[in-house]
Amino acid sequence: MKLRSVFNLVAKKASYAAGTPWTFLGAVTIVVIWALSGPVFKFNDTWQLVINTGTTIITFLMVFLIQHSQNADTAAIQIKLDELIRVTAEANNELLDLEEMDEERLEEIRRTYEEMARKANQTLQRRREGG
After folding, report:
1. Nearest CA to 47 among 33, 55, 37?
2. C-alpha atoms less than 13 angstroms from C-alpha of 34 in its C-beta half-sphere
3. pTM for this one?
4. CA angle, corner 76, sides to 12 and 102, nearest 5?
5. What is d(CA 130, CA 125) in angstroms, rounded to the nearest whole number?
6. 8 Å CB contact between 52 and 103
7. 3-class secondary structure, 95
8. Phi, psi dihedral angles at 129 (to 5 degrees)
9. How do residues 83-131 score in pLDDT, each as one tens digit?
10. CA angle, 22 then 28 then 19, to 5°
11. Helix segments in the chain, DSSP class H
12. Contact 62, 13 (CB under 8 A)
């Protein structure tokens, strides 16, 4: 199995596991046990270092796993949106490559869609008012 495939599998499973109630409960339990053990260790520097080191390492690793999962999810959503645009007869096919456009062009398109939304809201408002 390739490294990329293994990483993808591990990242997906870790991201899923990190978002479960059981993982949260486990983390809360660890923090409570750590806090309750404070008096036993007289709240010394080593006692503080244990939680600081543990949370720092976990956070550091989770950043990469979550980013990997986020990149994969974003790519999948982008492909699905591209397909919906592609199969819609009256769609603006320029939007298929939106993520590759420069900021100026994106702003122009955003203004166009804001204007369309404003007109649609005005039309809806007129219909509600009976006119």
Report:
1. 37
2. 17
3. 0.62
4. 125
5. 9
6. no
7. helix
8. -85, -5
9. 888 888 888 888 888 888 889 999 999 999 999 999 999 999 999 998 6
10. 40
11. 3-18, 21-36, 45-87, 103-128
12. no
